[in-house]
């Protein structure tokens, strides 16, 4: 009888929200208004020849490398950040090795790492979801081959300082250290240039979030040229599709559009945190395009009430330390205003609105 590898027997499955997702989607940290109009114009020019041929990454990689001030041999376009994580796991992990993650965090780190047969070590975040630098350093061993860190972290929005991240990279020269900067544009802090000092350091970015290209699945992985040569061997030369490659240069060229959207998100994030303080609601200050807060025993009622108003938000109760928590994505000014109005109504219904009026 055909059987899958033993490593898959206990593998957790990623569980995205299923069913009807119509309405204002503030649950997946997507751009709520979509991509630049320049991308849409480019889409209209793609003919049958562009779809019939295998895609070529190199010309677009040169454009992205220039945008990030990298050499073409220092980066690789990937099928979203997920492929970057998968490639590093396939390159450096095997049975008997270990991967370190700090929880709560993006679940695909554990899934891709465990699928290789490696042992995944989950280190709980510190007080107020602070990054536990010393515990992470204390768990590094000669078996450690991967350390994956989301910065800012998802779902908490917490940021780790570059100096702390580089301490970890320096302490584990035998391990690939991935800094996932999917939400970089909303915080502005990066360790991107530091891989030239630390050959074991990798940085990933995505064009799914602020650029509004989640449906096209495209991201970038950067690292030491010698290590990137090895990583390229593991992946398919055609994992990034032709439509994504055609559209990405237009998305990058419209930085005015990106900056305007970022400003709206940051303003909305500040307003949401201010309102949560007025409502006496526990939240965690975020540096990303979302905010995590606790509604406790009201979580299911809260989620249902938001859906009734046509707004989707993400239940994070199953994440480590996040019982009763929800995560809300911020978006355009108009979408944020709709969100705030709904929150005021719902919090009043569950008895939290009076404090906001005081």
Keyphrases for this structure?
single chain, 358 residues, alpha/beta, Aspartate Aminotransferase, domain 1, Aspartate Aminotransferase, domain 2, 2 domains, seven-stranded mixed β-sheet, four-stranded antiparallel β-sheet, 13 helices, 16% strand, globular, disordered C terminus
- Please tally the β strands and state the result: 13
**Poorly predicted ranges:** 354-358
- H/E topology pattern: EHHHEHEHEHEHEEEHHHEEHEEEHH
CATH class term of the largest domain: Alpha Beta
Mean pLDDT: 94
SS field, number of helical segments:
13
Cα distance spanning the termini: 67 Å
Shape: globular
Strand order of the largest sheet: 2-8-7-6-5-3-4
Rg, nearest Å: 21 Å
Q: Fraction of residues in helices?
A: 25-40%
Percent range for β-strand residues? 15-25%
What class would the helix/strand composition place it in?
alpha/beta
CATH homology superfamily of the largest domain: Type I PLP-dependent aspartate aminotransferase-like (Major domain)
CATH topology description of the largest domain: Aspartate Aminotransferase, domain 2
Number of domains: 2
Named at the architecture level, the CATH assignment of the largest domain is: 3-Layer(aba) Sandwich
Largest sheet: 7 strands, mixed
Structure at a glance:
The protein is α/β, with parallel strands linked by helices and 358 residues long. The protein has helices at residues 37-44, 48-52, 58-68, 80-92, 108-115, 133-139, 162-171, 225-234, 242-253, 255-278, 299-308, 333-349, 353-357; strands at 24-25, 75-78, 98-103, 119-124, 144-150, 176-180, 201-206, 219-223, 283-284, 290-294, 311-312, 314-315, 325-329.
């Amino acid at each position: 009888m055909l059987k899958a590898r033993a490593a898959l027997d206990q593998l957790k499955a990623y569980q995205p929200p299923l069913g009807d997702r119509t309405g204002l989607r503030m649950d997946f940290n997507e751009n709520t208004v979509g991509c630049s109009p320049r991308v849409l114009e480019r889409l209209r020019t793609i003919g049958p020849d562009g779809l019939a041929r295998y895609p070529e990454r190199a010309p677009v990689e040169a454009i992205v490398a220039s945008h990030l001030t990298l050499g073409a041999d220092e980066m690789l376009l990937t099928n979203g950040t997920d492929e970057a994580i998968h490639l590093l796991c396939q390159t450096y992990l095997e049975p008997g090795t270990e991967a370190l993650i700090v929880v709560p965090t993006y679940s695909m780190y554990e899934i891709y790492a465990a699928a290789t047969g490696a042992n995944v070590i989950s280190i709980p975040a510190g007080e107020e979801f602070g990054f536990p630098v010393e515990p992470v350093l204390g768990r590094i061993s000669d078996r450690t081959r991967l350390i994956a860190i989301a910065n800012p972290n998802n779902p908490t929005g917490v940021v780790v300082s570059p100096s702390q991240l580089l301490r970890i990279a320096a302490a584990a020269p035998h391990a690939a250290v991935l800094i996932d900067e999917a939400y970089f544009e909303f915080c502005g802090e990066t360790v991107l240039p530091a891989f030239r000092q630390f050959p074991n350091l990798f940085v990933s970015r995505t064009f799914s979030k602020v650029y509004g290209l989640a449906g096209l699945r495209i991201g970038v992985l950067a690292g030491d040229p010698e290590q990137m040569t090895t990583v390229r061997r593991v992946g398919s030369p055609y994992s990034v599709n032709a439509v994504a490659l055609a559209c990405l240069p237009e998305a990058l060229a419209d930085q005015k559009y990106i900056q305007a959207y970022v400003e709206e998100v940051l303003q909305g994030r500040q307003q949401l945190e201010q309102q949560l303080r007025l409502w006496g609601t526990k939240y965690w200050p975020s540096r990303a395009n979302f905010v995590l807060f606790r509604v406790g025993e009201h979580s299911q009622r809260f989620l249902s009430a938001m859906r009734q108003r046509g707004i989707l938000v993400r239940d994070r109760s199953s994440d480590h330390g996040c019982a009763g928590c929800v995560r809300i994505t911020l978006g355009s000014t108009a979408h944020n205003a709709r969100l705030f109005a709904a929150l005021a109504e719902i919090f009043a219904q569950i008895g939290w609105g009076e404090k906001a009026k005081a």
